[in-house]
Amino acid sequence: MAIVGGGINGLCCAWELARQGHDVELFERGRLMDETSRASSKLLHGGLRYLETLQLRLVREALAERDQWFERAPQWARPLSIVIPIYGHGKRSRWQFGLGLWLYRRLAAHSPHRDYHWLPAEELTAIDPGLNPNGLIGGYRFTDGQMDDQQLGLWVAEQARQAGARLHEQAPVERIDSQGRLWQQGEEARQFDTVVNVAGPWAEQLARNSGLNLTHGLDLVRGSHIVLNRPCHQAYLAEHPQDRRIFFILPWKEGTLLGTTEVRQALDEPIACSDAEAQYLLDAYGNIVQPAATATEIRERFAGLRPLLRSRGNANHASREYTIERTGKAINVLGGKWTTAPALARKLPAIVR
Ligand SMILES: Cc1cc2nc3c(=O)[nH]c(=O)nc-3n(C[C@H](O)[C@H](O)[C@H](O)COP(=O)(O)OP(=O)(O)OC[C@H]3O[C@@H](n4cnc5c(N)ncnc54)[C@H](O)[C@@H]3O)c2cc1C
C-alpha cells in the first residue's frame, strides 16, 4: 500500500494502516512534517468558531480527538486555558459566546476539559494587567489544547515506523492511477494494492495531473502567523477590530503567537506571510493587549495553505471537513484538520479492504 504525503494526515494514515497489518510505504517529496502541518495555530481543538457555521459533526469529532492527543502524547500536547474577552462594542455578544460554549460543552460529552466559566472584567485585568480594559465587560474561560505540531507529527512518524511503515523523504510522486500504479521521476511504475493520495493542499493537483476525476475540489486559503518576542501571560480568542474575524493570541516558546489570516491563493504563489498580514495581526493584538506591539518585535513569521473543501463565497465559511474519494485502487483524501487526522485515518482500513 502506498501513501503520498508526509504531513499529519499521511502519517496518521501510515500508522493506522501499518497497525492493521498492511505493508505500507509513504512517499514525501520533501521532509516529513515540513509543510502545512507545521504551520498550524498549534491548537488541538474542537473549533469553537465552526459552531457558527453549524459544523457540529466536525466539532464533536475534533473534541474527542483533542482529548485523545493529550493521552497519547502528553510530552507534545497539553490542555490550554483560553479566555474570550467580551467588549461592549464587539460583534458577538456575551450571550452568543455563552451559547457557543454551552454547545461546545455538550459536544465534548464526558471530557474532563469541558467546563467553562464567566470572569468579571476586574478579575481578568488582575490576571493579565496587559489586557485592554476599555469597554471590557468580562470574559469566558474555557479549555482547549496546544501542541508542538512539528514534534507531535514526528512522534507519529516514529510510531508508524515502529508499526512497520517505510517512510521515504525526498521522494516526489509524479503520477498515480486507478490501477494502483505510482510513478516517480525517471523510474518505472511501481504496483501497489492501493495508493492513497494525502498530499494536503497538493492533493487535488496530483489527482488531476494523474487524470483522476474528483467530485470535490479544494479551496486554498493561506493562513499566516507571527511570533512576537514578548511573553504571553494569557491565551485569548478574540475578534479582530476591522472585520470581526476570530483570531488567537497564544503562548509559544517564551513568545507570543498571533494568528491567523485568510487569503485565497493559487498553488503556484509563494506561501509566505505578507507585510499586510503581519500588520493585520499586530492591529488585532494591539486591540486586546497593551502596550501594542510593533513590527520590530516580530521574531518569526510563517504561513500555510488550508486545504478546504470547495465552497462558493467566503473562505471563512468553507468547510474544515474532509472527504475520501475512491477511484479503483486510488484513494484521494481532501480537506481535514490537524486535530482530526487520526479519525480520518481510522476510516481508511474499511475503504481499502
Ligand atoms: C494557518 C493554518 C492554521 C491551522 N491551524 C490549525 C490548528 O490550530 N488546529 C488544527 O487542527 N488544524 C489547523 N490547521 C489545519 C491543518 O494544519 C491542516 O489541515 C493539516 O496540517 C493538513 O495536513 P496534511 O497532511 O493534509 O497536509 P500537509 O501537512 O501539507 O502534508 C502534505 C504533504 O504532501 C507532500 N506532497 C505534496 N505533493 C506531493 C507529491 N507529489 N509527492 C510526494 N509528496 C507530496 C507535501 O510536501 C506535504 O508534506 C491549520 C491550517 C492552516 C493553514
UniProtKB/TrEMBL annotation:
Family: Belongs to the FAD-dependent glycerol-3-phosphate dehydrogenase family.
Protein name: FAD-dependent oxidoreductase
GO biological process: one example: glycerol-3-phosphate catabolic process
Alphabetized GO MF terms: glycerol-3-phosphate dehydrogenase (quinone) activity
Lineage of the organism: Bacteria, Pseudomonadati, Pseudomonadota, Gammaproteobacteria, Chromatiales
Residue ranges of every copy of the FAD dependent oxidoreductase domain listed in the record: 2-346
Record-linked Pfam families: DAO
UniProt keyword annotations, A-Z: FAD, Flavoprotein, Oxidoreductase
